Amino acid sequence: MKNKTLIAVTLCVVFFFLGLFAEEGFDWTNLKASGTAITADELVHITGGYYYFETHRYLINTGHPPLVKDIAALPLLFLHPVFPAITSQNLPVNFAWNTFPPTQFAFSTELEKADDSWDLGRVFIYNPQNNAGLITFWARCSVIFFNALFLFLLYLALAKAWNRRAALLGVFLLVFSPLNIAHGSLVDMDFISSIWQMITLAIFALYLKEKSVRYFWLTGLALALALLAKLSSLILLPVMALGGLVYVLVFDQSAKDVGKYILKITGIFLLATIAVSAVYAFHTWNMETTDIFYQMKKQFPSGVYNLIVLYFPASFLSNPFIKGLAEYSVSISMLSTRLTKAYQKIYFLGHVYGQEGAGHFYYPVLYFVKLPVGFVLLTLTAFFIWFRKRAKKIVPEHLWKDFKYFLRQPLAFLLLVFMGLYAIPAFSTKLQLGVRYVLPLIFAITLLTAKFIDNYWDGKIFGARKAKYFFSAALFTMVVSVLISFPYYLSYYNFLLGGTANGYTIATDSNYDWGCQDIKKLAVWMQENDVHNLYADIPYASYPLVYYLGDNYQSYDISKQPLPPSGSLIAMSTSEYQFDRGDSKVKIIEKNLVTRLGTTVFVFRVP
Asked: pLDDT at position 542, please?
């Protein structure tokens, strides 16, 4: 048992260093050139976390809970970067976006109230008195460290809910996945949210079995952390309520036991709500009640807002816990708006889509090409064996007996309920900006696959020797996938449709090019090749190009502007390249590829 725990610790350490070196490279004395540039969402998440500690207001990056942002900002409290003074001066929205550097590195109360996160991110991280590379390095380092720690906590929870071998296999499958390393190494809430959703379900399964006070409290706290990680964790509420109710109905059956369960699950939800409110109270301590009402008016349906104003006076929000809970509800309202309106521009399998989305095949296709082939093979094998066994038990009494036996280990059942309920919003929404949006679903599949391997490791189906050979070979290929794809974990695609190098032909966005993370490589290439005039058709949501390229570039949009003079160099991100692939000007220059830098930058010469 101690050996398995030691191996789990080792796997978490491996996860930490793989993520750190993949994102930050090896030359930490020159962070402006080493590793990857800050990705699109990291700019506002890092800034948001430090802003909360500086101001105790939640007017910036309001649409997301604070957990990963706070973790990213923790080391910055010791770094003491310069934070712009928030004053009453008149600054237009996008003042640091459209023209950079701005005339002054400042921010205004009006822009704060408007949640202008992007401008604040630029004037904070790229302030001349700050070191943008160092800020990003320590923010990522903190996130990777805590994600590795949370992986170990998941191991401990799984070891209790199942056994140590199944827990170790689960951690192994999670660690040796380029997709997980990528999103667990950025200031990105999808990985940390997935981890805490799985921990919550594992602890809740233990509570259902043992009904102990300890697991009652741990379930409530784990649920709170999941809710503080990402709003999609709200799916846990119906999953736990429904899954637990089925468990009680099957094994306890009496109305009294059902009543007790309803009271206890309500208590768990209440405990989580109090914990979430307390954390938000810390973040909203200096917010005026008028700010909360302003956010509610802006985000809530008019009818809901009018009822709040009618029945809840401003003094009601003076209570810190109520104020925190109100702010969390504002974030939920923003999420529902985003899911329904789906502002986006995405590339998928040769087509560019907008609000209409790419259709129901978007996530299934990405599942099969963004995960290692060895893992996909294991999940398919698990499904077919499970289906074959179920098909043999078509007699009702056998099905019921089998279901009761299965339910005695409630975690697997909870994971299935989770998958079913999570899939409903995931596959119905038209918001499709990357497979990371269904990462919790992939985590649930991963843990069930780990339990399947554990069940059949000793050869119940294949024979002991064949089973171990098969599983070992599949697991080994996952290790190989991680090693040979280093450091391009964010852009990783398996070989089914061409591999990482050609992944941009399948889908871009956060699947491949999340703000052109190889901009550092372009800057180094320009310096080494003495390039002083470059046209850059590169999205710069996450950074100003001038920070890396200096005065040696001109912003350029090939879809709107004529081709520059013959001999000119044009750098394009893979996203822009795919968005404009049908443009006649792109067809002219793509025959003259000069170089490709990393996975996300093409440099062409105009013929």
From this structure: 78
DSSP 519-567: HHHHHHHHHHTT---EEEE---SSS-HHHHHTTSEEE--TTTS---STT
Dist. CA 422–CA 440, nearest whole Å:
8
Q: Within 34-131, where are the H helices?
A: 40-55, 67-73, 76-79, 109-113, 117-125
What φ, ψ does residue 555 adopt, rounded to 5°?
-65, 140
What is the pLDDT, as a whole number, of residue 60? Answer: 95
From CA 199, how far away is CA 343, in angstroms rounded?
Answer: 32
Q: Distance between CA 467 and CA 458 in Å, rounded?
A: 7
Output the average pLDDT for the chain. 91
Q: Per-residue confidence at 334, pLDDT binned at 50, 70, 90?
A: confident
Q: Of 218, 272, 199, which Cα lies nearest the Cα of 418?
A: 199
Helix (H) or strand (E) holding 594: strand 593-597
Phi first, then psi: give them for residue 302, nearest 5 degrees.
Answer: -55, -40
Least confident interval from 165-174, 287-296, 433-442: 287-296
Say which amino acid occupies 456: Y
d(CA 186, CA 277): 26
Decide: residue 179, CB within 10 A, 0-12 exposed, 13-18 middle, 19+ buried.
Answer: buried
Among 349, 315, 493, which Cα is nearest to 432's?
Answer: 349
What count of residues does the chain have?
A: 607
340 pLDDT more than 70: no
The candidate with the shortest Cα–Cα distance to 445, out of 363, 346, 523, is 363
Distance CA 95, CA 578 (A): 29
What mean pLDDT do residues 141-148 have? Answer: 98
Cβ–Cβ < 8 Å for 75, 137 = no
d(CA 19, CA 23): 6
Query: Which pLDDT score, from 0 to 100, does residue 456 have?
Result: 84
First to last CA, the chain: 65
For residue 26, CA distances in Å to 159, 185, 589 come to: 35, 15, 34
Taking residue 270's Cβ as centre, other Cβ atoms within 10 Å add up to 11
Asked if 516 and 37 touch (Cβ cutoff 8 Å), the reply is: yes
Judged against a pLDDT cut of 60, whether residue 363 lies above it is answered with yes
Mean pLDDT value across residues 266-270: 97
What pLDDT digit, counting tens, does each position of 70-87 carry?
Answer: 999 999 999 999 999 999
Contact present, 64 and 331 (Cβ < 8 Å): yes
Q: Which residues of 60-72 are buried (b: 16+ CB within 10 A; e: fewer)?
A: bbbbbbbbbbbbb
pLDDT tens readout for residues 47-62:
999 999 999 999 999 9
SS3 for 285?
A: coil
- pLDDT number for residue 464: 60
Q: E strands of 251-384, at which residues? A: 346-348, 351-353
pLDDT band for 337, please (50, 70, 90 cuts): confident
| Adjacent-strand bridge partners of 352 | 347
Collapsing DSSP to helix, strand or coil, 4 comes out as helix
Residue predicted with more confidence, 396 or 349: 349
Spans of all domains in the chain: 2-140, 189-345, 515-605
Phi and psi dihedrals of 347, rounded to 5? Answer: -110, 135
Look up residue 50 and give its two tokens.
């430090």
Within a 10 A sphere around the Cβ of 256, how many other Cβ atoms? 9
